[in-house]
Amino acid sequence: MKIKYLLPIIVVVVLFLQSCQGFTLSATVEACEDGLIDRDETDVDCGGQYCDPCDEGEVCAEDDDCESGSCVSEVCAEATTTTPTDSDSDDVADTDDVCEGYDDADDADSDTVPDGCDLCSGEDDTVDDDASGVADCLETEEDTTTDTDGDGLTDYEETYVYGTSNDSSDSDGDDVMDYDETSYGTDPADSDSDDDGLSDSEEIYATNSYGAATDPLDADSDNDGMSDHDEISGMYDGYITDPNDADSDDDGYDDGSEYAGATDPTNSDTDGDGFTDGFEVNTAGTDPTGDQDHPVELAEGESVTVTPSDDNKYGITLTASIDNNCTFALTVGGDSTSDTVSTGGTITYGGLEITVLVPDVTSCIFVTNANVFSY
User: Fold this and answer.
1) Please, are residues 188 and 164 in contact by the beta-carbon 8 Å criterion?
2) Is the pTM for the entire model greater than 0.70?
3) Spatial distance between the Cα atoms of 168 and 164, rounded to a whole number of angstroms
């Protein structure tokens, strides 16, 4: 293809793509451009898990809130660059050092354990024929029976298996005995095994502020997208929710989704319109935060007139008939024209769409397409 034909085509494609960009904004993006501090933003339209990171000098709660990756005294600071420390000059950073203070490359007995940390010089530290957790070269009668702190773990198990103290029955100070932690599967050398902000004892023994035992090995016990600590501490807009129940208010809309959707996870009907948040979101498709946008529920013989926003269109009157499979008789405007729509059906008049939802035993429910009507 000649260049003189190709260039106009490229220009048209570029202009088309640019014109489409304005239609990709979501509700979340709009919330990040409203000039307010809302949701979990730490400063105006920045920070938190939804918006872009904040610039230097703006308010932050943690490093991730800042473009620089550095939050100091709740203010975004200039990015800092650090060089990994190598105290023993073995070309291995201290954070990755197998044997800190010694050269990891020195291994005279070739047992993969650096000489500086070799428990059995000249013997293989990794051999444990009886699967006791203690290397064969260390095992003696005394080694496998002595328990100085009386916590149920032998001194050698504490020193060489779990990395705990043989002088303290609770090495990490979390009020759970070292031996008990090995039974629960938690780390006896870490007071918060799942790093959710609650100590192992708070989760195991229900000594937290909510008074509920949670999973000490899962930071989000109910898998609702909110950590156990944050649920019971009111970290999400002050709401205190059940860390063991993904849907604390039993409205069919889980706690994490409610927070993201700006509804109240402790109130099944946030806008007080008579319909649960879950029903509005999952079934009706209406706004659970606005009491003017909701389904309509009618008892036997009750009627309601639905008026389109366009004054040139007729209003539609619906009369419920529960005994006839929740059928609605529709009368259009002042004419005698009528039609019916039954459970599960949808009927459209102009721009007004009416859908009949699954009824209960005492009433019928319908919903119309949002932003077209008032009633």
Assistant:
1) yes
2) no
3) 8
Which tokens sit at 233? 């501490």
3-state secondary structure of 236: strand
Whether residue 294 contacts residue 284, with contact meaning beta carbons closer than 8 Å, is answered with yes
For residue 37, which of 28, 27, 47 has the smallest C-alpha distance? 47
pLDDT at 275: 82
Mean pLDDT value across residues 296-307 = 67
Residue 30 tokens read as 């709009």
* C-alpha pair distances (Å), 25 with each of 21, 33, 51, 254: 8, 10, 13, 24
- Side chain identity, residue 315: G
Domain boundary among 49, 76, 103: 76
Domain count, the chain: 2
Residue 307 reports pLDDT greater than 50 = yes
Is residue 181 domain-resident?
Answer: no
Cα–Cα distance for residue pair 110/91, rounded to 1 Å: 20
Joined together, the tokens standing for residue 195 give 């790093």
116 in a domain, yes or no?
A: no
Domain end position, chosen among 76, 110, 125: 76
DSSP string, 47-65: STTTSPPBPTTSB-SSGGG
Domain that holds residue 337: 295-374
Question: What tokens does 267 get?
Answer: 């109130």
Q: What are the residues whose beta carbons fall under 8 Å from the beta carbon of 305, sequence distance 6 or more?
A: 315, 316, 317, 318, 375
Instruction: Say if residue 145's pLDDT is above 70.
Output: yes
Task: Give a yes or no: residue 328 inside a domain.
Answer: yes
